[in-house]
Design a protein that fits this description.
Blueprint (H helix, E strand, L loop, with lengths): L1 E7 L46 H4 L2 E5 L5 E4 L4 E3 L6 E3 L5 H34 L3 H32 L4 E4 L4
Antiparallel strand pairs: 1-2, 1-6, 2-3, 4-5
Helix pairs in contact: 2-3
The structure holds zinc ion (ZN).
């Protein structure tokens, strides 16, 4: 009756569970918690300092894989009734302190892209107001290129390394 709950950074950006496993076929969604390997369209990938509203402050979403194969992204404390098989899961059964550890870890790693975004936007506003529109056209592409080419890959690796040391939980469906 076990089922897996796993903290996840945001909408499918990090498939932490499959890091150590060989690549699965596309679209495979296995019962062992193997996540989709489908490539995420560029537009849905991590953006500069922009996240799903509430992710940073309310904490990472928890991916719940129901035994029947249904999947849901929940916030900590949410109760969820599987629409297909009506099993009920309660994420507040996850130990609070463990979830907090993950939340803090994720928040720490969010700071760099957020800071970069804030600084870039401030500079863009400053250049715009001081009539230096041309600088904005150089600044913004440079920041984006620097982020994707130089900063993000090692940042992501460190984050995934840190996340792989974090626990996963076996949430159990409540008795019906
Ligand atoms: Zn189900």
């Amino acid at each position: 009756m076990g089922k897996r709950g796993r903290a996840q950074a945001d909408s499918g950006e990090l498939d932490l569970s499959s890091d150590a496993q060989p690549p699965a076929p596309e679209y495979m969604k296995g019962p062992m918690g193997i996540k989709r390997r489908k490539r995420i369209p560029f537009s849905q990938r991590e953006r500069l300092g922009h996240e799903t509203p509430g992710t940073v402050l309310r904490g990472p979403q928890i991916t719940v894989d129901c035994e029947c194969g249904e999947q849901a992204e929940l916030q900590y404390g949410d109760r969820w009734t599987c629409p297909s098989c009506e099993r009920v899961y309660d994420t507040s059964n996850i130990p609070r302190d463990q979830y907090e550890k993950i939340r803090k870890l994720q928040f720490r790693f969010r700071l760099l892209p957020i800071a970069l975004g804030v600084v870039s936007i401030s500079l863009a506003v400053f250049f715009t107001l001081s009539g230096n529109i041309f600088a904005v056209f150089i600044l913004l592409p440079s920041v984006i290129v620097a982020w994707f080419m130089l900063l993000r890959p090692p940042h992501r690796r460190r984050f995934q390394q840190a996340m792989s040391d974090m626990p996963t939980w076996d949430l159990r469906a409540e008795a019906q």
